[in-house]
Amino acid sequence: MTDLLTTVPTLSGVSVTMLRDTILGHLRTSLGKDPGHASVYDWRMAVSHTLRDLIMEPWFAATRRTYGEDRKRVYYLSMEFLIGRMLEDAAINLGLHGMIEEALAGVGPEFRTLIEDEPDAALGNGGLGRLAACFLDSMSTLGCPGYGYGIRYEHGIFRQRFEGGRQVETPEDWLIRRDPWVFERPEAVATVGFRGHVETRGARAVWHPGETVIAEAHDMPVVGWQGRWANTLRLWAARPTTLFDLARFNAGDHTAASEPEALARTLSRVLYPNDGTQAGKELRLKQEYFLTAASIADILRRFRGQHSDLRKLPAHVAIQMNDTHPAIAGPELIRVMVDEEQIPFDEACEVAVQVLGYTNHTLLPEALERWSTWTMGSVLPRHMQIIERIDDWHRRMNPKRPASVSILAHDEVQMGTLAFVTAHRVNGVSALHTDLMRKTVFHDLNALHPDRIVNQTNGITPRRWLALANPPLAKLVTDVVGDGWQADLDKLKGLEPHVTDAGFLGQFAAAKRENKARLADWIAATGGAKVNPDALFDVQVKRIHEYKRQLLNILEAIALWHQIREDPSSAIVPRVKIFGGKSAPGYATAKLIIRLINDVATKVNADPVTRDWLQIVYPANYNVSMAERLVPAADLSEQISTAGTEASGTGNMKFSLNGALTIGTLDGANVEIREHVGAENFFLFGLTAGEVVARRARLGHEKAAIGESQRLRDVLMMLAEGVFSPGEEGRYHALTDMLWHHDHYLVTADFEAYYQAQRAVDRAYTDPADWHRMAALNTARMGFFSSDRTIKGYMSDIWSVPPAI
Ligand SMILES: *Cc1c(COP(=O)(O)O)cnc(C)c1O
C-alpha cells in the first residue's frame, strides 16, 4: 500500500524540470502527440493532466481520512455550479502558476494561451451557482469533508450575442471537447423513478414508478489552498435504463421504442436559464428530483458502508439545500426511511429535519417555487402523499399553527414552506435579508420555530477573486502583508497603515491602471469600442433584472450625455460605463433593457461632442471568466438594486475586494460592506427597504417623482421621441409607460438621488490620491467577505462539522 502511494506524484516533489517532463510525457502518452505537432488543445490537456496528477494525492488522502476517522460529511445539493475555468484555479491553489509558466517556456505555448483555451463551465445562471462554486473551494481549503452534488448539463447557460442590439441565445457546448477534470464513474449509479402508481399493502406503500432513468456520476476533484485537502463535485448525467424497447420496436412502434432514451437525454440536457421566475414546467421538477434522488441514494449508500441504522444519520450526514430547488430532499429521505426501512413516520420526519438545512435566496414572491398538487401528484405520486403527511405531522406537532404555514395551499405545494418545515436551520444570505425573512416570507413560521432562522452572510473565494483574477494587486498585497492572506483574508487589514503612504498608493494605482489597460485592449480586440484607460471605469455586471435596475443606470447615462451636450464645461471626469449580463430568454422587459443599453451606446459613442467624456460598452456573454477580467479593472461598482430586493449579492464583494468603490443602495450585503469599509468610502443613495414599502403604497408616486425632476422628464422625452430608436418612436414605449404608471422597482423615485450620487463620484475621482486611498481601504477591509468565513459559519451553526485540517 505505502509503496503504491509513493508512485503518486506529490506537491513536495515538484520542480520546473519535473513539471516539464510530466507535461511532455502526457503529450506523448495521454494525447498521443509529438510536441512538434501538438495543438493548443493538446498542450492544455497535457498541463491539465499534470496538475490533475498532483491533486490525486490530497484527494485520496482526504477520502481515506474521512473514512478512517468516520467524520461527518457535508453534502451541498445545488441545481447550479457556476465554476468557470478550472486549469488556472488548480495552478493557483497548488501554488504552481509561476512554475508552469517556466516549465512551458521554450517548449510550448504560453500558459495564458492554454488558460484561455479552456471553455468556461457555466452550469449556473448567476449568483446562486457562483456561490456554490465558492463554497466548494472554501470547504476544501478548510478541510470540511464533503461533496457538492449537481447535474452535468450538456448545455450550461446559453451563449449570448447581440444582433441589432438585441439578445440572441445560442446553445453553450462546453462538453464538445474532452473535459480533463472529470472522472466518469460508471460504477457509481443510481436509478431514479418518476410517475407510476402507489400500491398499498396493509400499512405499507409501494411505489411502482412508470419511468426510470439511471443517474451516472461524473466526479471533479475540488482542491483547496496549497493542496491540503480536496473534496469532490459529483455531477449526475442521465442515462436510459434500457437503450430502447426492442419489443415495441419490433411491433412497429419505432418512436415509442426510443422513449427511455429520449427521457434520459432530455433530463440532463439543459440548465433552466430561468433566473428568478418560475416556469412551472414538469421537466424542471423532474430535474430537481433527479438531482435529489440520485444524491440521497449515493449518500445513503456511503452511510450504509459504515453504519446501519438510518436513525443515526444526523451524526454523520449534513445535507444543505441551495434554495428550494432540491427541497424534495425532505420527502425523499422520509420515503426511504418509511417505505424501505419501516421507520415510523414521525420519527423519520425528526431524523430528516436534523439532517437538512435550507438556504433561502430570494424574497421576491414570483421566485418562490410552487408546484401544483396535480403536477407533483403525477410526476411523484408517492412524494405527494408524503408531503401531505408531513403537513399533517407539522400540524399535529404545532396544534396552534396558523393556516398561513401549511405546505399545501391553493392546490399547490409551497416549496419554501416545505423546505422550512423539513430543515433544522434555515438561513438567509445577508443580515438584512435574514431580518426581512423573519419579518416577511417566513414571519409565521419564524414565530413557531424562533431558533430555526439564522444568518450566514455570503462570501467569495479570495483564491479566484483576488489571487487568480488580479495578479498585480495580489503581488502588492503579498509584498506588503506577506503570504497567507489567500487563506486568511483578515490579513488584508495589514494594508491599512499604508494607505496614507504615497509610495504604496502609487503602486496600488499602478496595479489598477495595469488591469484597466489590459481590459481596454481586450475590449478593442473583441470588437468593442476603443476606450480610454484613464477614464473612470464604471461597471455593472450581473443578470439583467428589473430589480437590479440596469434601467436606472442607463437612464442616468442618458441624463449625463444630455447634460454634457448642453454644457460641455460641466464635464469633469471622463467615464466608461461598462455593462454585462444575460436576460432570461422569456423575460421581455429585461430584453428590452438590453436593447436600450445597446441603442444608447450606439448613439452616445458616435457623438463627437461627448465622446471624450462618456463611452458605453456592453461586451456580450458575461460569465465567470469575463468577470475575472472586468472586476479587477473597475473603479466604480454599481450595486443599485431597489432596497429589499437583492438577497445578498456577491458581485458587490468581488469589486470592493479588488479596490473599486461602490455606488449602492442599502440592500443585501451592501449594508455590511459599507459597515466594514466605512460609510465615507462608499457612495450611498436611495430609499431604504422600509421607505420602499411606504413609497410603493403611495398612489401616483411615479408621477410625483417625475414631476420633481426636469432631468428625468428630459430623459423620458428623449426615449419617447425615438432619439435612440430612429424610425421607431414606440420601441421603448413599454419602458416609459412602466416608469410613468407602474414603477414597482422605484427607478423614478431613486433617479435624482442616484444622479447626484454619481456627481459626487465624479468630484471624488478628480482627486486621484484620495480616490486610491479610499479604494485601498476597501481592499484592506474586505477580509470578512471571504467565503472561508461563511463556510466556518455553516460548519459551526448549521452542519456541526469540525474542520479536518
Ligand atoms: C459573481 C457573479 C454573479 C453574481 O453577481 P451579482 O452582482 O451578485 O448578481 C453572477 N454571474 C457571474 C458570472 C458572477 O461571477
TrEMBL record:
Pfam families: Phosphorylase. The keyword Mitochondrion does not apply. Transmembrane segments: none annotated. Its cofactor is pyridoxal 5'-phosphate. InterPro entries: Glycg_phsphrylas, Glyco_trans_35, Pyridoxal_P_attach_site. GO terms for cellular component: cytoplasm. The keyword Transferase applies. It catalyses: [(1->4)-alpha-D-glucosyl](n) + phosphate = [(1->4)-alpha-D-glucosyl](n-1) + alpha-D-glucose 1-phosphate. Its EC number is 2.4.1.1. GO terms for biological process: glycogen catabolic process. One of its GO terms (molecular function) is glycogen phosphorylase activity. The modification N6-(pyridoxal phosphate)lysine is found at K654. Keywords: Allosteric enzyme, Carbohydrate metabolism, Glycosyltransferase, Pyridoxal phosphate, Transferase. Belongs to the glycogen phosphorylase family. Phosphorylase is an important allosteric enzyme in carbohydrate metabolism. Enzymes from different sources differ in their regulatory mechanisms and in their natural substrates. However, all known phosphorylases share catalytic and structural properties. NCBIfam families: P_ylase. This is Alpha-1,4 glucan phosphorylase. It comes from Frigidibacter albus.
